[in-house]
Amino acid sequence: MWNGYPVVDADGHVIEPGTLWEQYVEPAFRDTCLRVERDRLDGDRLIIEGRPSRLIRRLGGVPYDPEQPIHDWNTLQLKEYASFLESSPPASYDGAARVRWLDEQDIEATLLFPSLGLIWPREVDPASPYAVAHFRAYNRWMADYASADPGRIVPVGQLSLSPLLGLAEEVKALDAAGFRHVMLPHGVTGHLDTRLDPFWAAAQHHGMVVHLHKVAVPHLLPLPLPTSVHSSGPGAFFNHVNEILPGQLFLAGLLDARVPDRFPGLRFAFHECNIGWLPAWLERAQESYETLRETGRPTPDHLPHHYLYERDTFFFSTGLGERLERLPEELHSRVLLATDFPHPGTPFRPREEWEPVLEGLPAKLRPALLGENALRLLDK
Fold first, then answer.
1. DSSP for 341-370?
2. pLDDT tens digits, 12-58
3. pTM exceeds cut of 0.85
4. Are 117 and 138 in contact (CB under 8 A)?
5. What's the Cα-to-Cα distance from 119 to each of 8, 38, 124, rounded to whole Å?
6. Do the Cβ atoms of 354 and 107 come closer than 8 Å?
7. Does the structural domain 8-16+89-377 have CATH classification 1.10.10.970?
């Protein structure tokens, strides 16, 4: 409890240990599975199908210290680097240690997402048997991790949009393993077509919340090749400013495909896309709805604000850096607190760092942000 209110971390992370896939992947993929290769002179490497990752520069570097901010391993310049394991917080790979961390931070529960699993799927065919086997291995490991306290550690499962799979069966298997939350399947590109309908239907049937994490959400912009929003030309400022775009684009995509109309029992949570843009976005969405209706073109069944104000369908996590004082009261029920622990730049003492922020918020917003909204997602 913080100031008498229950607290739920809506966006926490594990850091997958280097031995996860060797222990949990199906035997047919064990020889080529993901693994971590020790390199004390340049930092440990993630090995994917026998080659170093192109997107993950380094794993580890400085031994973890709970009294110090978490380092960005990629920017370190050292003569010798600590191993990936000793650089990772025990709470990131051990369920019992995570429960102790929750106790220390007075946090009631946490939703947990992968770390390496947000990145490595971009280096392989996410619909391949290799990727599918690794998603399943992660889910098995995550179920074991969460068994330390299933009421407080809430795992978010991973799936692939593979033509070789029955998505309904994959969701059913997650449900049988105790998962109530699932990420958008990897492999969605370009637009939301009917290939996803079996997934939406199964998620709704099993009462699962669908999570859209910034790094793993497709941008869906119909840009002609070779134009790309992932161009290497823009700098860090450009990229950081526009990290909210996946949330904006995917929200529009869901309404455009009428997913909330066709599957009204579904709930969605957006992470690391912020929420402060929603009022301006809704104004534009209302204008678009009215313009398209006047010309007889397809629209969602309802005005856009209906889905945000009148339904308990969409939720958006927020971190310390976003100012919420002016968030319209109608959106107070949409916002979730997120620590992003244990990624670099995240609060390593969340309660201490959030307290001054909470003091400046409207009184009714504090309990909603801290846990009331998230507890609805957890059906508590």
1. TTSTTS-SSHHHHHHHHHHTS-TTHHHIII
2. 999 999 999 999 999 999 999 999 999 999 999 999 999 999 999 99
3. yes
4. yes
5. 25, 20, 10
6. no
7. no
